Amino acid sequence: MQPEFDLSPASDALADIVTAIDDPQLDRLTPAGIPVRALLEHVEGLAEAFRAAATKETAGSSAAPEFGTGATLDSQWRILVPARLRAMSRAWREPAAWSGDTEAGGITMPAAVTARVALDELVVHAWDLARATGQELKVHDSDLAVLLDFLKDTPPEGTPGLFGPSVPIGPAAPALHKVLGLTGRDPFWIPSAR
To answer: How many domains does the structure of the chain reveal?
Structure first.
């Protein structure tokens, strides 16, 4: 089975956001409700989890994701996190990654669905980090189309363990705003003053 889409643009965009974060920004709160450092720790873990899902090496042994405090964030995070993101996107370029079922976060799904969950994580967390650190995020229209199709049946109350309650977004809103709203993010979120 051929890859249905390429995760590289979204993983590269997230890697660019990560490498531009300054140390003083690590304690800023993100739209996810956790500090930047904790979200970086989560992104490092999810990149490895979805890489392993592509290779099918963790079938039957993956664990549900956790949001930590960021206390165990590696001191070389500006190198490590982008490297993990690149490894993940490379793994999903292999046709075998898209066949059959795989497992990520303790959940077994068809591989193509897992790839869509990975794309959602990349885009939404890139936006979280960009908003918290004053950066701009560019998302490919093709990625937004994949996500809007994937998320179209998300219930308004959200999906426990995956998305919070959806945020109402007008029909004329940009595609990224619609994706954010369906995943429980307010596209107009701004950092609170400290």
So the answer is: 1
Element (H, E) at 182: helix 175-182
Q: Residue 192 domain-assigned? A: no
32 is a domain residue: yes
Q: Kindly tell me the burial class for residue 137, based on how many C-beta atoms sit within 10 Å of its own C-beta (0-12, 13-18, 19 or more).
A: middle
Q: In this prediction, what percent of the chain has a pLDDT beyond 90? A: 81
What is the domain extent for residue 129? 8-182
Question: What is the average per-residue pLDDT within 9-13?
Answer: 98
Mean of the pLDDT values across residues 137-157?
Answer: 94
In-domain check, residue 190:
no
In a domain, 125, yes or no: yes
- DSSP secondary structure of 91-156: HTTSGGGGSSEEEETTEEEEHHHHHHHHHHHHHHHHHHHHHHHT------HHHHHHHHHHHTT--T
What confidence category does residue 181 fall into, taking pLDDT thresholds of 50, 70 and 90?
very high
Give the predicted TM-score (pTM) of the model: 0.94
CATH assignment of the domain containing 56: 1.20.120.450
